[in-house]
Amino acid sequence: MRGYFGIGVEGVSKQANVGSLFRSAHAFGASFVFTVAADYTRRAAGRADTSDAVTQVPFYAFPDIAALQLPKGCRLVGVELVDEAIDLPSFHHPAQAAYVLGRERGSLTPEMLARCDHVVKIPTQFCINLGIAGAIVMYDRVTSLARFAPRPVRAGGPIEMLAEHRHGEPVFRTPERMALYRTEINSR
């Protein structure tokens, strides 16, 4: 899978659920995890974060939204149950993304929502646990961006195996470079 992602929270209600989120992030291959304006300690989250993700994956603790810094080209995606949000199954994940979730006893602040490039919602009837919501978003990212065998029409596993990846010829900006490349290949 190309690209990278990070995931974090704005504020913290239950540190154990943030630990669970960070453990899932580690399992899904997150490039970094973060908190914004959150009172988060590794010790309090340790019971849920059994992989000790913050020692395995870069962890950033931003004191406020103004301090939040993302890599160049990284898109901030809010996860919030608001009417104007895009339903997660209809969302095309950016190749470089940071997902941010709000505290469980509250929502993303209006300032954080304004900072987001996109806002998605999980199509549920009401809010769900922070760790579960983050895991669903990461699972959706992986299944929509990585290569898997196609889903069968009938119930059960795939009937056909995933085709082996084949690299195509390189793309050149000028016809002269392409001609030179083909000459080199044919002379081998």
UniProtKB/TrEMBL annotation:
<dbReference type="GO" id="GO:0005829">
    <property type="term" value="C:cytosol"/>
</dbReference>
<keyword id="KW-0949">S-adenosyl-L-methionine</keyword>
<dbReference type="InterPro" id="IPR004384">
    <property type="entry name" value="RNA_MeTrfase_TrmJ/LasT"/>
</dbReference>
<keyword id="KW-0489">Methyltransferase</keyword>
<dbReference type="GO" id="GO:0002128">
    <property type="term" value="P:tRNA nucleoside ribose methylation"/>
</dbReference>
<keyword id="KW-0808">Transferase</keyword>
<dbReference type="InterPro" id="IPR001537">
    <property type="entry name" value="SpoU_MeTrfase"/>
</dbReference>
<protein>
    <submittedName>
        <fullName>rRNA methyltransferase</fullName>
    </submittedName>
</protein>
<dbReference type="GO" id="GO:0003723">
    <property type="term" value="F:RNA binding"/>
</dbReference>
<dbReference type="InterPro" id="IPR029028">
    <property type="entry name" value="Alpha/beta_knot_MTases"/>
</dbReference>
<dbReference type="InterPro" id="IPR029026">
    <property type="entry name" value="tRNA_m1G_MTases_N"/>
</dbReference>
<dbReference type="Pfam" id="PF00588">
    <property type="entry name" value="SpoU_methylase"/>
</dbReference>
<dbReference type="GO" id="GO:0008173">
    <property type="term" value="F:RNA methyltransferase activity"/>
</dbReference>
<feature type="domain" description="tRNA/rRNA methyltransferase SpoU type">
    <location>
        <begin position="8"/>
        <end position="139"/>
    </location>
</feature>
<comment type="similarity">
    <text>Belongs to the class IV-like SAM-binding methyltransferase superfamily. RNA methyltransferase TrmH family.</text>
</comment>
